[in-house]
Amino acid sequence: VVSTQSTGNGVKALDWPEGFSTADSKKLYKERLNSLELTREQKDSIIRIKMKVFELNNKLIKEVTHSQISKDVAWKYLERVLFVLCLIVAFLVLWFSRK
Q1: DSSP 36
Q2: Does residue 6 sit in helix, strand or coil?
Q3: d(Cα 71, Cα 95) in Å, to the nearest integer?
Q4: Burial track 11-48 (b if 16+ CB lie within 10 A, e otherwise)
Q5: Residue 1's pLDDT is what?
Q6: How far apart are CA 71 and CA 66, in angstroms?
């Protein structure tokens, strides 16, 4: 990851070169991985790592999704509280303006 403070490029490090294809990259990765001469133990280790990465990725997605849901609920609650406060203020203004 490129630091935005040291280079000033920010997320530019995530730009892909023109003509980049995710599908081609995945295909090339799979071909190169399959061409390696690995023992059964090494293959099993790779599978365990891939499964763990998949599990952690799903956990991260759930946390981000839950976080967004929590924010949405908080905003709805805040909107209701502000609405009630506005009603109270309006009531007080009317009450004191009648006296």
Answers
A1: S
A2: helix
A3: 36
A4: eeeeeeeeeeeeeeeeeeeeeeeeeeeeeeeeeeeeee
A5: 38
A6: 9
13 has pLDDT over 80: no
Please name the amino acid found at residue 44: D
- Please provide the DSSP assignment of 40-97 as one string: HHHHHHHHHHHHHHHHHHHHHHHHHHHHHHHHHHHHHHHHHHHHHHHHHHHHHHHHHH
Please enumerate in sequence order all residues whose Cβ is within 8 A of that of 1, keeping only pairs 6 or more positions apart, or say none: 13
pTM of model > 0.70:
no
| CA separation, residue 2 to residues 10, 11, 50, 88 (Å) | 7, 8, 25, 51
Report whether pLDDT(99) > 70: no
pLDDT top residue among 19 and 15:
19
Both tokens of 32, joined, read: 């190169």
Unique residue bearing structure tokens 């530019």: 12
